[in-house]
């Protein structure tokens, strides 16, 4: 399992498919290394939640940290590419 802990884009670079490209690069790396999944840890208020959903991530409602401020988005890569 690979954890993508900090993915930040300056506001000037948002909504230009750069975030999706970076996530797809992380997916490719996971596949190349034979990892079973990719996790993104994000704050609940992160404006990129829709990006994670669009890229196939699913919010794990059972996992949260720091009093519920941090959410976990999971993407299991087994046969999902």
Element layout with pairings:
Layout lengths: L1 E3 L13 H16 L3 E7 L5 H6 L3 E8 L4 E7 L5
Parallel strand pairs: 1-2
Antiparallel strand pairs: 2-4, 3-4
Organism: Flaviramulus aquimarinus
Protein name: N-acetyltransferase domain-containing protein
Describe the structure.
It comes from Flaviramulus aquimarinus. Residues 1-79 form the N-acetyltransferase domain. This is N-acetyltransferase domain-containing protein. InterPro entries: Acyl_CoA_acyltransferase, GNAT_dom. This protein is α+β, with helices and mostly antiparallel strands and 81 residues long. The protein has one domain: Gcn5-related N-acetyltransferase (GNAT) (Aminopeptidase, 3-Layer(aba) Sandwich), CATH 3.40.630.30. The protein has two helices and four strands. The chain is globular and about 35 Å long. It starts with a strand and ends in a 5-residue tail after the last strand.
């Amino acid at each position: 399992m690979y954890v993508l802990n900090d993915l930040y884009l300056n506001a000037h670079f948002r909504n230009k498919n750069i975030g999706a490209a970076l996530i797809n690069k992380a997916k490719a790396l996971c596949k190349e290394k034979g990892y079973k999944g990719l996790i993104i840890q994000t704050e609940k208020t992160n404006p990129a939640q829709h990006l994670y959903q669009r890229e196939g991530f699913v919010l794990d409602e059972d996992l949260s940290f720091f009093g519920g401020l941090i959410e976990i988005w999971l993407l299991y890569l087994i046969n999902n590419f």
